[in-house]
Amino acid sequence: MRDPVFLIRAEDKIQHHVKLFKQCSTASFTIKLTTKTTDIDRAENLVVLSSEESINLTKMGYDQRVLLVSLNGTKELETTTKINQNILLLSMTNQTSWSLSESYTVNDMTVRNTIGRFAIKKDNQSKNGTLGFHGFLTLDLVERRGNFHGLQLIGMSLPSVTFSTLKDGYNDKSNYIPENETFDVTNFVAGFYPEVYNVIMEELNFTTRLYSRKDGYYGGQILSGNGSLNADGAVGDLFYGRAEVLVAPMTKVNNREAFVDFLPTLSQVQLAYYIRNDAQQEIIDWDLYLSPWSRYVWLVLVILALGMTLLLSLADVSSGMPCQVTKVQQFSIISKYNHAEQCKD
User: Fold this and answer.
1) What is the Cα 271 distance to its own chain's centre?
2) Where residue 246 sits, what CATH number does that domain have?
3) Is residue 207 part of a domain?
4) CA 101, CA 135: separation in Å to the nearest integer?
5) Interval 103-149: pLDDT, tens
């Protein structure tokens, strides 16, 4: 790691903090300095907020990273962050060390962790000393926050032919909620997908109350009357916050990805059309043979064929020259051969 260049001017303290953090971070990112929470965009940038006041970042997405910089070592920034928000606090403890910590809430609990400390060690090789990082916890967000502390989620589960099914009689035995036309199927789900989801719940220490729509509609993207795009069905339940997770084999298509996030693919299904083969029965299906045209077309074709045959026969008889090759006979090798034999006789 290169020796950091320390800046002395007071107005550069924020940049100084950020430079130290960036040099010791294992992730690549870009930096944006701001004092307004409204400046946070949807890009995967590290947004540095240098305010000492209370900051509300409840609308920040899980794919964003924010570093709160505190120049007052005795005062921590109070935040209302959730477990899925990647917000870290970098505070100065003294002139030569900084503390990297986090604070978030989950299931009405506040969790505070000190991730590590930055410290300057003076040596003879560097004029300003060498910056080192001593980590107490991993920098990986998922590994660090892998405990939901018994949080209960609201989920949807829809019946399917494979991978996820509902036990027989669930609509009679389960609790029906007429307000949103759903069944409480927490104890009635079965199959491969629910088993995988049970492992996830056990590993992350949370539970889920599962409901099933009465109409069993998965849903997707729809176009409203005013031209805007909305979501309906189970996809709409997730997008509009009526549910937090869907445990069902949902096909990953573009009109759904615009509204919900998918986990990595667990299974692939190949669809095909099957047609019954009646060849072994040795049955001639005349309806299938005649189906390309209607009965009236076939009638016209038969009449034309008979009429042309009759006209050609009348033309041969009226010519009166049995040894003369007609124009029609010129197109038939067999007719030419027969005519030659007759002339020899």
Assistant:
1) 20
2) 3.40.190.10
3) yes
4) 11
5) 888 998 989 888 888 887 776 665 656 667 788 888 788 888 899 99
* Two structure tokens written together for 283: 């049955």
> What's the domain range around 52?
10-144
DSSP H/E element including 208: strand 206-213
Euclidean distance between CA atoms 258 and 228, whole angstroms: 13
- Distance from C-alpha of 278 to C-alpha of 297, rounded to nearest angstrom: 27
In a domain, 275, yes or no: no
Tell me the residue type at 277. N
> Are 28 and 132 part of one and the same domain?
yes
Residues 134, 215, single domain; the answer is no
Task: Please write the tens of the pLDDT for every residue from 17-51.
Answer: 666 666 555 545 555 666 665 555 544 556 666 65
Residue with tokens 């399917």: 160
| C-alpha torsion angle, residues 50, 51, 56, 61 (rounded to 10) | -10
Whole-angstrom Cα distance, residue 319 to residue 290? Answer: 38
* Same domain flag for 131 and 179: no
The answer on 226 and 195 residing in a single domain is yes
For the CA atoms of 129, 131, 132, 136, what is the dihedral angle to 10 degrees?
130
Q: Is residue 206 part of a domain?
A: yes
Tokens of 252: 């990953």
* Whole-angstrom distance, CA of residue 279 vs CA of residue 262: 45
| Domain tally, the chain | 3
Residues with Cβ within 8 Å of 326's Cβ and at least 6 positions away in sequence, in order, are: 315, 316, 319
Question: Do residue 84 and residue 201 come from a single domain?
Answer: no
Specify if 49 maps to a domain: yes
Identify the residue whose tokens are 């009348």.
314
Backbone Cα Rg of the chain: 39
Q: What is the rounded CA–CA span in Å between residue 13 and residue 38?
A: 23
